[in-house]
Amino acid sequence: MESKIQNYISNNRDRFLNELMELLKIPSVSADPAYKADVLKTADAVAQRLREAGVDNVEICPTAGYPIVYGDKIIDPTKPTVLVYGHYDVQPADPLDLWHSPPFEPVIKNDRIYARGSADDKGQMYMHVKAFEIMMKENILPCNVKFMIEGEEEVGSANLGTFTEANKAKLACDCVLISDTSLIANDIPSITVGLRGLAYIEVLVTGPNRDLHSGVYGGAVANPINALCEMISKLIDEKSRKITIPGFYDDVLDLSTEERTLLNQIPFSAEDYKSDLKIDATRGEEGYTIIEQTSTRPTLDVNGIKGGYLGEGAKTVLPSWASAKISMRLVPNQHPDKIQALFKSYFESLTPAGCKTEVSFHHGGEAVVVPIDTPEFKASSKAMEKTFGKAALPARGGGSIPIVALFEQVLGVKSVLMGFGLDSDDIHSPNENYGVWNYFKGIETIPYFFHYYTEMKQK
Amino acid sequence: MESKIQNYISNNRDRFLNELMELLKIPSVSADPAYKADVLKTADAVAQRLREAGVDNVEICPTAGYPIVYGDKIIDPTKPTVLVYGHYDVQPADPLDLWHSPPFEPVIKNDRIYARGSADDKGQMYMHVKAFEIMMKENILPCNVKFMIEGEEEVGSANLGTFTEANKAKLACDCVLISDTSLIANDIPSITVGLRGLAYIEVLVTGPNRDLHSGVYGGAVANPINALCEMISKLIDEKSRKITIPGFYDDVLDLSTEERTLLNQIPFSAEDYKSDLKIDATRGEEGYTIIEQTSTRPTLDVNGIKGGYLGEGAKTVLPSWASAKISMRLVPNQHPDKIQALFKSYFESLTPAGCKTEVSFHHGGEAVVVPIDTPEFKASSKAMEKTFGKAALPARGGGSIPIVALFEQVLGVKSVLMGFGLDSDDIHSPNENYGVWNYFKGIETIPYFFHYYTEMKQK
Question: Who among A215, A226, A329 is closest to B400 (CB)?
Answer without folding.
Answer: A215
